Amino acid sequence: MTTLLPTTTAGSLPKPSWLAQPETLWSPWKLEGDELVAGKQDALRLAVKDQRQAGIDILGDGEQTRQHFVTTFIEHLDGVDFEKRETVRIRNRYDASVPTVVGAVSRPKSVFVDDARFLRAQTDQPIKWTLPGPMTMIDTLYDAHYRSREKLAWEFARILNEEARELQAVGVDIIQFDEPAFNVFFNEANDWGIAALERAAEGMTAETAVHICYGYGIKANTDWKKTLGSEWRQYEETFPNLQRSKIDIISLECQNSRVPMDLIELVRGKKVMVGAIDVATDTIETPEQVAETLRNALRFVDADKLLPATNCGMAPLSRDVARGKLQALSAGAEIVRREILG
Ligand SMILES: [Zn+2]
């Protein structure tokens, strides 16, 4: 990639209203059967068009083919019973009724590879594909089989690696693993979570990224953030080990969050996806606000390693707001590009 400051998104974009209820997480599909398959592809095409029109450099599918960033992947695996549900605490924050691991987990066939091939056919620009990370996956399940969070995480890491290798083979340039759990379970992340993530990324020639955010779209996450005080220093716990890991890109949130920018220094040498777009407000950033966030980040990350991005997925926003934010991201990056190139 030769573009300076290549822009990208964390992952999701709003879905069209004819595909799923807008501005909601877990929204049920409005189509079924062959119509749903075609509808998802049309939505993916529109997501690509919106990104291209806004001038985004590394394109994603806007997660148009999945209902949830973790569950949709798990639904395709054997060993998990979605009828058998137990209530567990998610990321130490809220209780949810979750599916049960009832046997050895495996991936009978690829999950997103057809969708990724479809995305590849839409553009010659670099593409990024998102998968859940192993630690975040285990945190949304009740495990009645392995009875060990670590053991289940390693099994998921193996399965994720199978999927990642196939995604790479159909032309995905960057595989991103979403690991918000790294901001909660520091000890586990450092003991085995980061190692499991490296297992998921093992043997990749595509670049690999890890997205670590504070969570959006549900009240429990908003309430939790209120308890974190004036400085959010959670990244401090895992960044030193991530800096030493084989993961190429670290994705974090910087816009309107209380994360001290200098924590990026802890992953010096890695590429950094700097969240310069707040996904928790309908207010569209000005290009100058985006530029200011990027300038701040440039004090701690070299210009050739900075990827301007969104804080997190934009699924809960309206399509107009999301488009406006993509344009602001692109325009803000362009301001800073010109400053750097003189
Ligand atoms: Zn996120």
Bound molecules: zinc ion
Which architecture per CATH? Alpha-Beta Barrel
Shape, principal axes of CA atoms:
globular
CATH fold naming: TIM Barrel
Stretches where pLDDT is under 50 for at least 5 consecutive residues are none
The strands making up the biggest β-sheet line up spatially as: 3-5-6-7-8-9
In this structure, how is the largest beta sheet organized? Answer: 6 strands, parallel
The end-to-end distance, rounded to whole angstroms, is 21 Å
Question: Which class do the helix and strand fractions yield?
Answer: alpha/beta
Put simply, the count of helices is 10
Q: What pattern of helices and strands is seen along the backbone?
A: HHEEHEHEHEHEHHEEHEH
Output the CATH class name: Alpha Beta
> Which bin fits the share of residues in helices?
25-40%
Overall pLDDT score: 95
Estimate nothing, just give the exact number of structural domains. Answer: 1
Beta-strand segment tally: 9
- Beta fraction of the residues? 15-25%
Alpha-carbon Rg, integer: 19 Å
